[in-house]
Specification:
11 helices; Aspartate Aminotransferase, domain 1; 3-stranded antiparallel β-sheet; binds pyridoxal-5'-phosphate; 2 domains; Aspartate Aminotransferase, domain 2
């Protein structure tokens, strides 16, 4: 089969991994410690806490398990309500259900799609215990406003920073903006080990408790290494296996080395797209607010209401340009059984179009994406 470069598919997202990651994995093989919560995880956690601007970090199997652990150690109970930014991958709402509590979804800002502080405050009831705010596509939400609301009502604040590695808000790194934050290292995120996650906080008690829960309710084996006797732990609390493996942690170490370059590449792609699409009637470019740095986990256009987002998407796919909807409106998912409509999030869910965004895109590929989007939009206008 021959296909010229013009006919090759341009991926929506793609990890940047190579020989360095393979070498790091080989080193873990040689060390013999392949399981989780070992020396490679420890090294990664120390470095990742610095990236997130927090005192402590715990590596986890994914972001969903980090969210779950975070809610557990914050003491969320059945009957509690947690306010959740509506526009997100539903792992966010799921985590609240997983601890037996009720997610109460808050509508979003129309420009950056994170929870609208006014909607958050309006959603508070006597059963509310905290706010779980999502950095949509990685750009942080309004954490000063969330903090003021949380303090006024005696709530905790949790940042779903799944897509946010390397982002900032008022010069503070994503991850340090709330009482606790969860990251994802899934293959579609800015840095990845295929799967993986982290829970970060300045609060030593929260991370220490989460560390136990993530290893079946006991201290990880590494904490018993080198002790003179034969320490035998006992189990007091129901725990889980939510560990990142040391193989993945080694990969993440290399991904952290790459992070500045990956962010720079994504930023330059976003700049090219912004320049090209500002001129194009029928689509609106994503907003990066001046007081925050967007990590561009994805690049999402908003299609004008009179055009069909789905038809544009099908045309792009037919031309080998991968694309997708933005992310999910949570409140319309049948699982949650909600009846009210959150109009801004519902609208974003129908009009958003994610186009290729990753650190491996070449300028030629970006040009081809731009041209294909332009043709599709013009053909359907
Ligand atoms: C990807 C994502 C998650 C889930 O991450 P996993 O690592 O797959 O569990 C949670 N929240 C948001 C906002 C995400 O984008």
């Amino acid at each position: 089969m021959t296909a010229g470069p013009d006919h090759q598919t341009i991926a929506l997202g793609q990890p940047t991994v190579g020989e360095e990651e393979l070498a790091a994995v080989a080193e873990v093989f040689r060390s013999g410690w392949l399981a989780g919560a070992g020396p490679a995880c420890r090294r990664f956690e120390e470095r990742f806490a610095k990236t997130a601007g927090t005192a402590h970090a715990l590596s986890t199997s994914n972001c969903g398990s980090a969210l779950f652990l975070g809610l557990k150690v914050l003491g969320v109970q059945p009957g509690d309500e947690v306010i959740v930014g509506d526009y997100t991958f539903p792992a966010t709402g799921h985590s609240v259900l997983q601890v037996g509590a009720t997610p109460v979804f808050a509508d979003i800002r129309p420009d950056i799609w994170s929870a609208d502080p006014a909607a958050v405050e309006a959603a508070i009831t006597p059963r509310t215990v905290g706010i779980l705010a999502v950095d949509v596509a990685g750009q942080p939400g309004d954490f000063d406003e969330y903090r003021a609301i949380a303090d006024k009502h005696g709530l905790w604040l949790f940042e779903d920073a799944a897509c946010s590695a390397g982002a900032t808000y008022k010069n503070r790194p994503a991850g340090s903006l709330a009482d606790i934050a969860a990251f994802s290292f899934h293959g579609r995120k800015g840095i990845t080990a295929g799967e993986g996650g982290a829970l970060v906080s300045d609060r030593e008690d929260l991370i220490a408790h989460a560390r136990k829960l993530h290893t079946y309710g006991i201290e990880p084996a590494i904490s018993r290494e080198g002790s003179g006797g034969l320490p035998i732990p006992s189990f007091h609390e129901l725990g889980y296996n939510f560990r990142l493996s040391d193989i993945q942690a080694a990969i993440m170490g290399v991904q952290l080395d790459r992070l500045p370059d990956l962010l720079a590449s994504r930023r330059s792609v976003a700049k090219l797209y912004n320049e090209a699409f500002t001129e194009l009637d029928g689509v609106t470019t994503p907003v990066e607010l001046p007081d925050r740095e967007h990590p561009w986990q994805s690049y999402i256009l908003t299609v004008a209401p009179e055009l069909s987002r789905d038809d544009i998407a099908l045309r792009l796919r037919a031309q080998g340009v991968q694309c997708n909807f933005g992310t999910y409106a949570s409140h319309v998912q049948p699982l949650y059984g909600k009846t009210e409509t959150l109009p801004v999030s519902a609208d974003a869910f129908t009009r958003h179009l994610a186009i290729p965004m990753h650190a491996n895109l070449t300028e030629t590929e970006v040009e081809r994406v731009v041209e294909t989007v332009r043709e599709a939009v013009n053909a359907l206008s």
